[in-house]
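Technical annex B. To support the medicinal chemistry partners, we prepared a structural model of the target in complex with NDP, based solely on the information shown next.
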Amino acid sequence: MNGITDKVVAITGASSGIGEATARLLAERGAMVALGARRTGRLDDIVATIVATGGRAIACEVDVTSPSAVANFVDQTVRSFGRLDVFIGNAGVSSLSPMAELDVDGWSSMIDVNLHGVLNGIAAALPVFQTQGRGHFVTTVSTSGIKIVPTQAVYAATKNAVRTLLEGLRQESTDGVMRTTSISPGYVQTELVDSIADPRIREQAKTSMAALGIPAEAVARAIAFAIEQPDDVEIGDLTIRPTRQG
Ligand code: NDP
């Protein structure tokens, strides 16, 4: 199956930012989309607008740190749309702070959501892909893992762990059943940095994001590009930055 029309795509972190933009774009281009996140009110609103314009979409409450919740998300997607063509492990959090602040709770939450959450996605989607004989696992990593800067050490570490994971998965998936794609965005205008605890770091991050950030739709288009390739073409790594980002 080529292109995007009629593909079934499950997206975590679809209640805002990149996940929301990706769900909207793929639905507009004819995909059946399952939107997963914790804020179900927002998911319901997004789904309602997609459906109102003729798209096909469902909302599912999912906390990606729970393996059973992610398995249930995949089950619900397959029950609603008959199969799963693409899983986009996109949910993420960024608790930025200098290492010396010892924000151990923030470190844990980034590992739980950004790394464990993606592993839970693989555990849920891989068996379905194997049964179907086809599938595509996409994940949102970051340029934070390419150029490591102060306050982003742990965030970058989780993103590079996922980059490594996906390359390992790719090496184990050369039988043609599954494609893997890691998208590395630079600054994108989303809510990602709004929850940073330290007000000084939060304001710095918000200022950089506002000054430089590209719209989430730009990343959605990059994800769509990876998905729309023919089954025998795999876009492995894709970096997408604001042109002026250092
Ligand atoms: P947003 O904050 O807008 O989106 C993050 C999404 O993740 C939300 O939908 C949120 O939904 C979801 N999420 C967070 N924790 C959980 C959880 N435990 N279970 C399920 N969903 C969860 O930010 P972005 O759109 O920017 O982030 C999307 C991805 O892109 C992240 O992985 C981020 O690291 C990555 N990225 C972002 C960049 C940027 O500059 N914005 C740059 C590079 C990468 P809810 O709270 O409803 O659960």
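Notes passed to the chemistry partners:
The radius of gyration is 17 Å.
The longest strand covers residues 178-185.
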